[in-house]
Amino acid sequence: MTTEHLTDLRAVAREYADVLRASALDLDRDPSLAAALLDRGLPWRQLVGLPAEYNPDPLRVRGRPVHLQSCVEQVTLLEELARADAGAVLALPGPSMSGFVIAELADADQRDRYWSTVAAAPTWTFFGMTEPAHGSDPGSMGTTLRPADGGGLLLAGTKRYVGNGARARLGVVFARRHAGPLGVLAVLVDTDRPGFTAVPLPTLGLRGLQLSELRMAEVPIADEDVLGRHKSATRQGMWAATRTFNRYRPVVSALALGVAQAGYDLVVAERRDLRTGERHLLADWAQRLAGTRAVVLAAARSADRNPGDGTLASAAKVRATRLAEEITTSAVRLLGPGARWDHPLLDKLVRDARAFEFMEGTGNIQRLTLAQGYLQGRLGDARAA
Ligand SMILES: Cc1cc2nc3c(=O)[nH]c(=O)nc-3n(C[C@H](O)[C@H](O)[C@H](O)COP(=O)(O)OP(=O)(O)OC[C@H]3O[C@@H](n4cnc5c(N)ncnc54)[C@H](O)[C@@H]3O)c2cc1C
């Protein structure tokens, strides 16, 4: 992937910034407006990474079709869209995280079922891992799959903080079928099944994403809903979840970076007369934005090469999250008393930046992954990326 191609892709993404920015505060106030966003001319099919066979009219960069199947292309495009509004990017219909699980585990029929639904009309999907009592720790997962009397399985449990859950048409749920690390399976669930309900949760940051709680009371699961059933026991739910996290963390990092860049842009636009110290601070931010962009790109290259290694993805997430928090909170100070009141967009950026700390694992967990990668000598490979 050449630098020129990525620069052109970034420029194409910028063409959609106005549409996203114009609706940012409305969507923040009312996340149910996600569907209305599409009426404003946003070509969602071109922006969410549909496979070529399900998208006859892809994004074009200098006339060349771009299907956004690589992490490198995704981080480039999505950072620029998130610079306009990260909440709107996450509120787009499409595969989001569940698409990665499908790529890892689905057989041909499941793949077609998933993608033909997602591509046909604006369709939201979800990735259901985190639980109210156990967080995202798979070892203590309480959601279960048990055999049903008449055949098939029954899915029972609660998932919380699941993006787009309440407006999704289908998604992937992780649940325990047997004890032990290999006992977690991923299943493809249609949300109109009996026993399935989803409700939006009240949130402060990235409100467009509409975090939700999924309640599953003996939802019937057929054999053909079980993802990875044609794979070996070691290539099941948690194996795919780990690779999905490694693959999606550079994307989350790019979204955080977009928020950091938006905070920087806002200060530059609103504060003309800077004192010497403030000029230095802005110069420092500009350098760190560029440095973090390079780390995110390296993490994306590493994820494209080997989604089994999340070392650089964790480094990118820690760095981008910290920068987004720092720039947005310092921007409040730089723009003076009442800044969050006078600049509603800044108020939103401050709240959005906070959400990235928890999304896809906290900073402490990323630092542990980074340390393990370092101790196992994986940073050398990562640098080569
Ligand atoms: C915007 C957003 C979107 C999300 N989307 C989804 C989604 O679509 N699907 C989904 O399933 N979930 C989703 N989540 C949930 C998210 O993935 C989890 O909340 C996140 O992974 C943290 O996991 P946890 O809640 O188990 O917290 P924990 O990992 O238990 O962390 C709790 C606290 O303990 C600390 N901690 C934990 N372990 C250690 C350790 N070993 N050493 C030191 N400190 C430690 C952490 O740093 C943190 O401060 C989303 C969350 C947010 C905020």
Automatic annotation (TrEMBL):
One of its GO terms (molecular function) is flavin adenine dinucleotide binding. It holds the Pfam family Acyl-CoA_dh_1. InterPro entries: Acyl-CoA_Oxase/DH_mid-dom, Acyl-CoA_Oxase/DH_mid-dom_sf, AcylCo_DH-like_C, AcylCo_DH/oxidase_C, AcylCoA_DH/ox_N_sf, AcylCoA_DH/oxidase_NM_dom_sf. Keywords: FAD, Flavoprotein, Oxidoreductase. Its cofactor is FAD. Residues 236-374 form the Acyl-CoA dehydrogenase/oxidase C-terminal domain. CDD domains: ACAD (cd00567). The keyword NAD does not apply. PANTHER family: ACYL-COA DEHYDROGENASE (PTHR43884), ISOVALERYL-COA DEHYDROGENASE, MITOCHONDRIAL-RELATED (PTHR43884:SF12). Belongs to the acyl-CoA dehydrogenase family. This is Acyl-CoA dehydrogenase. The lineage of its organism: Bacteria, Bacillati, Actinomycetota, Actinomycetes, Micromonosporales.
